Write the structure tokens for this entry.
Amino acid sequence: QVQLAESGGGSVQAGGSVILSCTASGYTTTNVGMAWFRQAPGKEREGVADINKDGRKTYTAAVKGRFVISKEAGQNTVSLQMSALKPEDSATYYCAADRPRGAPAGPASWLSACLLDRPANCVWGQGTQVTVSS
């Protein structure tokens, strides 16, 4: 069974930086696409950044130039380095990863790509809170 464990987050002042990390377990391959989404109170969930199994990165416009997503080679660990934070970045941040089509969770061809515009293809972590104060 695939599980995602997030770490990082917390409270920071505007202009500050935070790093989120997430490790996925249960896959039989490290060729897994991963992503970060966020949801603020009263708002819909939105995609923040993704990195597909080939290493291609996509960012939502609101975070381009401020956030960097990275994935460690040979591991299913993804990080989100957030800088120049704004109060509007406050949200619960969710780690996400490619959804297995069955068991076992791999190889990569057996995974549905979790991308910002394909959240239905994602498995989810429990979320970590980021609060940015002005």
